């Protein structure tokens, strides 16, 4: 994976975008890695793989009996936990 400083990426944005179409680019700021830029095609593939992995995990959980029926009560309990963790939501 190529590395480019954020300063250089800013100054040579066209070159940076072109490079990201060919391979992921690791962006650094003050010599620390801060981000990775990938092409849209690579991003879509990563998202699809993540979804497939989630579906496979869900199917495995169901096959092993690790499921919870989503009754009104179960939904309210989950909402209450969410609201406790995210009071501004």
Structure characterization notes:
- It is a single chain.
- Helix content is 61%, strand content 17%.
- By secondary structure, the chain is α+β, with helices and mostly antiparallel strands.
- The protein is elongated and about 55 Å long.
- The model has no long low-confidence stretch (mean pLDDT 96).
Q: Strand content of the residues, in percent?
A: 15-25%
Question: What overall geometry do the principal axes of the alpha carbons give?
Answer: elongated
How many helices?
4
User: What is the distance, rounded to the nearest whole angstrom, between the alpha carbons of the first and last residues?
Assistant: 38 Å
Helix proportion range: 55-70%
Q: How does the helix and strand content classify structurally?
A: alpha+beta
Rg, please?
21 Å
Mean pLDDT score: 96
Number of strands: 3
**Domains, number:** 2
Contiguous uncertain segments of 5+ residues: none
Lateral arrangement of strands in the main beta sheet: 1-2-3
Q: How would a textbook summarize the main sheet? A: 3 strands, mixed
Following the backbone from N to C, one meets helices and strands in this order, namely EHHEEHH
């Amino acid at each position: 994976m190529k590395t480019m400083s954020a300063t250089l990426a800013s100054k040579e944005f066209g070159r940076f975008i072109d490079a990201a179409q060919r391979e992921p680019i690791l962006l650094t700021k003050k010599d620390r890695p801060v981000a990775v830029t990938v092409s849209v095609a690579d991003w879509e593939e990563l998202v699809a793989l993540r979804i497939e992995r989630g579906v496979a995990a869900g199917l495995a959980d169901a096959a092993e009996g690790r499921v919870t029926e989503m009754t009104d009560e179960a939904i309210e309990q989950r909402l209450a936990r969410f609201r406790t963790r995210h009071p501004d939501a």
